[in-house]
Amino acid sequence: MGGPEVERLIGLLAKLPGLGPRSARRAALRLLQQPEARMLPLASAMAEAARSVRTCSLCGNLDSTDPCGICGDPHRDGGIVCVVEGVGDVWALERAHVHRGLYHVLGGTLSALGGTGPDDLNVGPLLARIREGGVSEVILALAATVDGATTTHWLMEKLKPLGVTVSRVGHGVPMGGALDVLDDGTLAAALRARRPY
Question: For the chain, what is the domain count?
Answer without folding.
Answer: 2
